[in-house]
Amino acid sequence: MRQIKLTIEYDGTNYVGWQRQPNGISIQQVMEEALARLTGEPVRLHSSGRTDARVHARGMIAAFMTEKSLPLSAYCEGMNCSLPPDIAVLQAEEVSLDFNPRHDAKGKHYRYSLHIARCRSPLQRNFAWHLRDSLDLGLMQQGGEYFVGEHDFAAYRTTGCAAKTTVRRIDKVEVESAGPLLHINVFGSGFLRNMVRIMAGTLVEIGRGKLQPERVRDTLLNPSLKAGMTAPPEGLCLMEVFY
Amino acid sequence: MRQIKLTIEYDGTNYVGWQRQPNGISIQQVMEEALARLTGEPVRLHSSGRTDARVHARGMIAAFMTEKSLPLSAYCEGMNCSLPPDIAVLQAEEVSLDFNPRHDAKGKHYRYSLHIARCRSPLQRNFAWHLRDSLDLGLMQQGGEYFVGEHDFAAYRTTGCAAKTTVRRIDKVEVESAGPLLHINVFGSGFLRNMVRIMAGTLVEIGRGKLQPERVRDTLLNPSLKAGMTAPPEGLCLMEVFY
Predict the structure, then answer these.
(1) Is it true that domain B2-95 has CATH number 3.10.20.600?
(2) pTM of the entire structure?
(3) B152 vs B176: CA distance, rounded Å
(4) With an 8 Å Cβ cutoff, is B30 touching chain A?
(5) Given a cut of 90, is residue B161 above it in pLDDT?
(6) CATH classification code of B107-242
């Protein structure tokens, strides 16, 4: 028995998300079916976490057990021949049998992208949240600083989130301008469901001057206070998982 | 009678190109139909030029005549409500009746994007040409320099090109690295059909060491010599038209 760890990139636009769902095609289903065709075995992929419908990944991590002794290139170059154009394996490595993609993850980097312009952008439509208003970057950075540290993020999860504890650690929040795009880079130990999207939505409301940067501090001290809106999924990308 | 000049952005992935074709949906057809619904008149759009199937634009220019006196915002914000998500009007201006988008164009900026990595990228699949080999930027820049000036570009057009003269002026060719992407920026007075794609394909073969940079000079002096391959359409974007 071997365990294989895969690094996966995908354009989530046409999927219901990472996890198998009854209502549509998921990345997990497409990956598991391609691996089953390749190995001739039923394959169960365990990932570092989930992503929502329309959310992207440049470095999703998932692992599976196999009895076969195919060369690693079969799981990378080989898989990429049978996967659809919007999913690809970037790397395949053999790892120890006790590697657990979810529990062993030390941290993750998510990027939320905004497109700021008077008109919507056809070329960015699936990869950034389009906003007409100009945003105050200084205020957003101030708000972002309040996220850093270990806090109760109960105000930053969706109602469907089943996590037992809502305490998470954020290591860094960066707001960087790149032409008409604004990237919010978030590094942290782990994330509740919709947490990055609510963080991004809150920072946007701060950048618009509709919320004070101190609102972040207040919602972390008192989770019954409302955070900002949930930013739409297309702007979000899971960049990297750290082990 | 008024003439309205539009600046148009589109993701060309799902179109047969700018120009109306019997075999599929073109950007021109979608734009003309949306304008006809808006104005209640039949509308004929005249563009600065064509783009091939799957080629993109951030700044295509097209103009039309209208008897209506709608506010300019109707042709921008108004149009964007009825256009599909992969096409948008970025700007609408009233111009004099003798403005001709094709003949009055002083120059154009095209960008050809390459994605250089061991594995194909799902997120770049519609916007860059994926190459596995690393390229020698210095050689590509050297080759690019030979394009600058007024030359006979007969070796740099597809067989279907109906242009009367094949002499064109190139003002600048820049090769710039941006992470895993490589952008080839080409500025020139005008372009033959597939010219930028053959220029990009030739520079790629130079970067791979398969052609010498001097091959560019030789093909411009002697158009019966073969230039490099035609790069695929998805990497090409019309960035701006200058008047």
Answers:
(1) no
(2) 0.95
(3) 26
(4) no
(5) no
(6) 3.30.70.660
